Amino acid sequence: MTERESLVRLEQRVAELERANEELQRSEAHYRGLFDRIPTGFYRATPEGRILDANLALIEILGYPDRESLLAVNVMDIYTQAGDRQRWQTLLENAESVSDFEAPMYRHDGTIAVVRSSVRAVRDDAGQVAYYEGSVEDISARKEPETEHEWLLQTLSHQGTLLRAAADVSKAISTILNPEELMDRTVNLIQARFNFYYVGLFLVDEADGYAVLHAGTGKAGQQMLAAGHKLEVGGSSMIGWCTARGKARIALDVGEEAIRFDNPALPLTRSEMALPLLSRGRFCIGALTVQSSEAAAFRSDDIAILQTMADQLAIAIENARLYRRVENYAAELEDRVAQRTAELEAANRELEAFSYSVSHDLRAPLRAMDGFSRILIKKHQDQLSPEAARYLQMIQENAQQMGQLIDDLLSFSRLSRQVLKTQPVALADLARQVLRELDYEREGRAVEVTVGDLPPCEADPALLKHVLVNLLTNAFKFTRQREVARIEVGHRQVDGWTAYFVRDNGVGFDMQYANKLFGVFQRLHRAEEYEGTGVGLAIVQRIIHRHGGRVWAEAQVEEGASFYFTLGGGGCNDERSG
Amino acid sequence: MTSGPVEILLVEDNPYDEELTMHAFQEYNLTNRIEVVRDGAEALDFIFCRGAYAHRSIQNAPKLILLDLKLPKVDGLEVLEQVKSDPRTRGIPIVVLTSSKEERDIVESYRLGVNSYITKPVDFEQFTHAVQQLGLYWLLLNQPLP
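^ inputs. structure came back:
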């Protein structure tokens, strides 16, 4: 190639470049024009906050006289809330762009414009943020509805949404009976249905005066729960304020609030509401915190709706806690019953072993005493003085008395172990049967016995027969000295229960000893007058008590006695009380 | 010791009860045909011809066993069970003669196949009467297994 040819080429190249440059400048001017004419504000800024470029719309939104004066300002000084820029920067760490981000900004004249912006991070080859570019829209005006009608519609639709969500939450939580599950489900449900940033639930710990976090949504919730997050009741937090006063509180813009807990786990919170959980409408058992990443997310009208939901929640929590308590009581009771039953079974086994041994071993020596003294009398009578024979007679009598005592005691203790087999019983028939069996008692005596028209009852017939045998035997015994003995089996109503009675015209007794009548071995008559072991009425009482009934006596000395019993309404039931 | 075949085996650990029983039998001249053993193990040895009674023949069974329930070593119910579950001895009448009126003793004895259950009364007259009656019944009236 010649030198000239090279020169020509160079000139051509320069011309091309000049053209390209002109083209570029035209294009640049074209886009600058476009950039400036668009009614939305645009900007580019470094991560440090230096504004690289801004369009006319932005200059206008922020009320600056010209581009230079805006470019001279650091972005940090424009945000009214220092944290706002930090927030979207945090968001951009994990995302290419953030859109519809609302924040208040200072205008040049110091007034505040609420803007909605979208930001994109432009990164260099190393992946570091080279600069941010974004759009800015002034929504200060939009925040206020233009007409009454529009305002009403907007409010209604907003409240409708809230009410639906509140109803859904209330419905869902009313069926959960496990307190932990209830609280966990509730916070997540509220968070999802109302589209909140975070929802947490605190319960007041009476002992140390703190509101303790019991449920919280998301990762922040997990972290705080793990850390045992709690706030002092009456302290300088929204929850502290709310739990101390039992009133709801809203922070529409948390940066403005003096009372709030600046929570590092929840950097995006802009609006916050604390709702008290009131038991029976007054006693504060805890509080609900709902947080939004938007400023001014709540209206005062919303409190009523959310508070209604919180009231429902308080009831549900109380129900769940009561249910848990009842469950615990039931379990505790069951344990105690099982323990008592085991103790009683052991005691019963011991008693059984004891009476078994008594039954076998205690009678044998008596038999020997009775037997050998009889043999002595029978075989060696001629060698015995009358006094010696009398002593031997007394040994026999005492041995037999002791034998009777053992038999009575054993049947008495057997009564406690015997299973009650109740069935309808025709008491009049039973009384007549017993009287037939006691016919021998009437030999050589004048006895008038009447059995009334007794209503049937529900009882164990074998045990009830025991009762009648004992009472009628007593009646025969204690009328022995009457010329004509009169014995009556009847009934009358006492306190709404049928009281059956056995009445006689015998020797009676002094009522001041009535309380001793039914004790084991208690006797009101001397043995030489009226034989007996003092166990009969104790057996009667044991049987009646096992039927849940009551037994008592009315008498006068020498004027006869009446023994009453009922088969219910005794309030003292050995069967049920174990 | 006995002369002639043993008619009654009395299983009784209480010497006083034994003496009273023997006294009751005396009037019927049955005492020389009664063998007394003091516990359940001895009773089983006698019945099954073992140990001290190895010389006996099992065919030569007593006509009646009077069995107390509360016995040392092997109790009465177990003796009853073994005798009644062995085909060779099942036919021997066993009368339980005991102080116990406990229902479970009575029920269990009948379940194991006892022929009769008598409670020893404390009253010696009644006791003598009972022992004599059952001796008479089982030895004279009852037709044993051929």
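Confidence is low (pLDDT under 50) at residues 572-578 of chain A. The interface with chain B takes residues 355-356, 359-361, 363-368, 370-372, 374-375, 396, 399-400, 402-403, 407, 410, 414 of chain A (CB under 8 Å).
thumbs up if we can close this ticket
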